[in-house]
Amino acid sequence: MDYDKMDVDAADEMGSPASGSGSFSAFVSELASLHRRSSSSSTASSSSPPLSLASLTFLSSSAAAPLSSFFQRIAAAGLPTSSLSAPLAASLSAHPLPAAVAYLRLLLAPASPLLSLFSPLPFLSLLLALRKASSAAAHDATNPNSGSGNKSRKRKYQQRPPTARVPSLLPEALSLLANAAGRVPLEEHPDARRSLVDTATELMAFDVLAAVLGSDYRAEAVPDVVRTLVPVVFSASKSAARAAAVEFLVRNVVPLGAEEGEDGVRKAVAYLPRCLAKKAPEKSEARALAVEAIVEVLRAMGPYEREGFATYVVAMARGKAKGRLLAVDLVLAMLPSLLPSEGDDCGLQEGSWGLKFVRLLVERCSDSVGGVRARALMNAAQVLDVLSERGMEVDQLQEVTRIGNMGLGELLRLRCTDDKAAVRKATLVLITKAIRLIGRPVDELLLSAMGAACSDPLVSIRKAALAAISEVFRNFPDERVTKEWLQAVPPLVIDSETSIQEECENLFLELILNRICQAANLKLEDHSIDMEDVFPEGTLDLLKSICDGEVVPCIKKICASLGRKKKLKPLLASSLQNIITISESLWLRSSRPIEKWTAPVGSWWLLSEVSSFAPKSVNWKFLSHHWKLLDNVGQDGRGKVCSKEEPNSALWAVDRVSLLQTISNVSTELPVEPAAELAHSLLTRIENFDMHLSELDAHVKSLKTLCKRKAKTAKEGESLIQKWVKQLVCKAVGILDDCIKETSEAGGRNFFTPLSGKVKGRKETSKSMSQAVIAIFTIGSLILACPTANVQSVIPLLHTIITSGNAEPRPKNLAGGAVSFKELAPSLYIQSWDTMAKICLVDDKLAKRYIPLFVQELERSDLATLRNNIMIAMADFYVRYTALVDCYMSKITKSLRDPCEVVRRQTFILLSKLLQRDYVKWRGVLFLRFLPSLVDESEKIRHLADFLFGNILKAKAPLLAYNSFIEAIYVLNNCLAHGAHSESQGRSDRGPALFAIRGTDERSRSKRMHIYVSLLKQMAPEHLLATSAKLCAEILAAACDGLLNVDDAAGSAVLQDALQILACKEMRIHPNICTDNSEMDEEGGGDGGTASALMAARGRAVTQVAKKNLIQLAVPIFIELKRLLESKNSPLTGCLMECLRVLLKDYKNEMEEILVADKQLQKELLYDMQKVDATSKAKAQAGAAKVAGPSRATPAHGSGKVDAAARATARSVLKEVNQNTPTPPLHSMSVPKVRSMLGTGSRRPAVLESVRRLQPFESDDEN
């Protein structure tokens, strides 16, 4: 029923006093009739009939004049006042709102007999009526068309007349209730008082609550008001109701705690902030709103109350995790109000609340709970902002943030490597904001930690690390910081996250390129001599640092991306030219020979990278001048100065390569005649076959570009290129042919020539050999620059060299067939293989013939350089001829175990790139052969392997670690006992032995465990559970059935590894393993509620399944395996007992139920657990005693009871052992839970076979 819709037919009658008098007469008549009926009847007053709607309307709408004499006229009519109570109470159910208004008007009428008219039950009915009316009004506001329902349906084309909505009486009723709340006697009726407060809070009638607090019973009502307002204050959103509730607490409740107030009220108000803190929620958004409300309440309180609550916050910060989390938020919110508004000491004097709060926050940065640590670090960053605004000095900050012997830098370094993601992110944010206050010098370990965080698996942490280390570089651009920044940031340009790539490019542009641009307008002064004084500070160091070989590919990619986005300014090219020119001028000013001058390291290289995007900014006169200078010096010193005696020869060669690259980039802007002249000069230099190999590719590329610039049409340019390529190939073939003949003759003479006659011939051979090496390399460069070139005349010569020394028959007239170029000329031999690989890349028919030779040479060659080059060639072949090379993958992967570190690293990088580009699939033995790289002797390879398995593989093939885990155990131990694994390992000849880490020594076992742990970290909790079941079924049960020979060294190692894996902490499944992203440890907040609840439910489900599998699957196998190992007196018995102890230590109270089949094993495990607990407690007490002082009584006394219990258990165990009571076999035991699942009457092998076949996820009917 809609309580707002009433019939008001008598409204006009009540408008005049006359009509009011008449209505009063009707009302008196009705009341008298009801009174006579109730007097003559034996029923209770509660069953009295209600008043009519007309009477209620008269009472609820009467003016003040009639009500002023209402009770006198009732008495004059001979009716007692109590006769109103029963009809009004009944009317509250029949006509709620009119009756409520009428009842309240009567209570507020002058000379109203409150004691006889007020009763708790009618008052509660009145409050209930108001609640229902409010709900109905809210429902009508939400669904305006739902009130008519189906009864008011009209026919088609029948128009429904508009109905006027009757004004609601609810506002009037609430207004009357606010006036009556302070008058009604609620001191003796606590239920009615609480209901009144609850109703007022529910209806947001704060004027009613204010009236309650202004009444005589406010001392009893204050706790009720606070109790009802707390849920509104802690609502999850910033609603108007929440804001009104907080404002009510501040303006109406807090002032009641003034000194002149009542003692009980003052205590209740003073306790208000603590009440809010105790009931504050844990979720981040709701907690933030709670902190905001608490702070607003505190601001309205006096200093004494604020200090009392501050003491409570300090105590709360050392309590439970929930309180500590709230305390660090309260510290941040309260700190500004606790610091003085003026002064130079920032309010951090000894003993001040500001100092206490800052130190409390720093202490919580090392909290045991990850969420508290993360929140404390985040808040510390904002606190440092507040302190820095107040002018805090670096020395004072270091002193304030020092806790014991740990300073701020050491704290940040430890938190940068925290195991919780949210903590690492918060630490990086703190570094970003506090770097200016940390001061110089920046700790090297902290720098390394920030650099390592740039390769973190989580995107948010990589972003935070990028911002942190860039802020350090921005403030302290010294050599150490520059080096670390360049090693950490530029590699992020190939990150999988696009936003990180863009941020990396922008930071490189800001911090590197824009700084170099500052040298564009520099002018050389007359007195300048030193370059460091001329250029801006750090410019030359930046240029030198960007040439580091490890970051060069990344910087090239950054420059190319910035150039495509048109972010590279022409000013950068002008700046680099100015740097080179000023450097040359300063050198000549000091009267030093120009032959020994070198440009600042990195200037030519960077100019070659940016010139293609700003060709018009590069001056041709500048290029021509320096090309003549560099080319003339190179030709004059060739063979004399620059070969050995001059250390600048390599720098000149590098600069010439960069200069040629620059010329190629700006060739479209060069004049035709200078371009033709330069092309002729380059061709002449190439034809001499006497330049450094590193310059050849640049010369060929530049010559090709200049020929296209010189030609008028594209066809003419191609013809010109073919012409000089053919000319160079013919000359190179001639030189190579002569060298082969000379080497063959020299090799034949060496058997008969006396020792004294070798020197001259060796010098001549060396000269021709060097020229032949350059000729072969030139052919390789030409074939890549011009794939259509005819090199058929070269292939027989290369074949002769690469197959020299083989036992295969050769034609007698073939030169070089009888000598081994590998021994006589290894450099020629290596370059021949490289050139043959380049030719195969452009000739598929030749590739089919020679790829098997490349694979064969990769396996048997003893030259590390050749193996490395062939590995690079095989990677290129895999991209070009995937089907041809795929069958040789098992042989190619053997290079992962090459004795040379460079070859191993190169192989790992190349195969990883092929895997990322999907040319190679994670199938067969490939994954298993990558595993030993996790424990490689080289730290660089280990780092690459960790990144591959932790980042790339986890995203690309998340189930690979789980699917291959059991097989990895067999492969690493080189165990062929299991049929499936021996079949997969037997595909290659020496692969298993090469990739195995055999041995039971500590070093081998630790390496294998490191690999296992790395794989376990990639698994989800459900995969850990399945892996545990597979370990029991496929290894432990196999040992019980005899499929795995535990007497064999390899089989014993496999079993020991399985037991250690089951006992390791990474394998243990707890409920919180699924809730790492919950509120206490979440990265950024997000939609924490639903996701956190789902993850928690998932964790509980997995934990229950894990316990069930342990009891029904693992324990029976362990019992049988223990019997087997004891019968063989195997040393693995101790390992098995240790594994069982770790697995069952969380189920001490259920030990008797789990091990009901073997009481002896139960007692042994309890004894082991007690001994371990006693040892750990003794160590802990000894450590505490060492810190506290020299007293030794406490540790001995503390461990006495535990040792006594352990000795008692030991005596009982030894007593049974001395009785020669062996562990009974499984088939004779009574194991109810196992028997209920596996059936009765089965023998031991059948039991184990059925246990092995269990499917935990499919057969679990409880979840």
TrEMBL record:
Main location group: nucleus
Annotated ranges, domain Condensin complex subunit 1 C-terminal: 866-1023
Gene Ontology molecular function: histone binding
Superkingdom assignment: Eukaryota
Keywords: Cell cycle, Cell division, Coiled coil, Mitosis, Nucleus
Alphabetical GO biological process terms: cell division; meiotic chromosome condensation; mitotic chromosome condensation
Pfam family, one: Cnd1
Coiled-coil intervals: 1137-1164
Region described as Disordered: spans on this chain: 1-22, 138-164, 1183-1263
A cellular-component GO term for this protein: nucleus
Compartment list: Nucleus
Protein name: Condensin complex subunit 1 C-terminal domain-containing protein
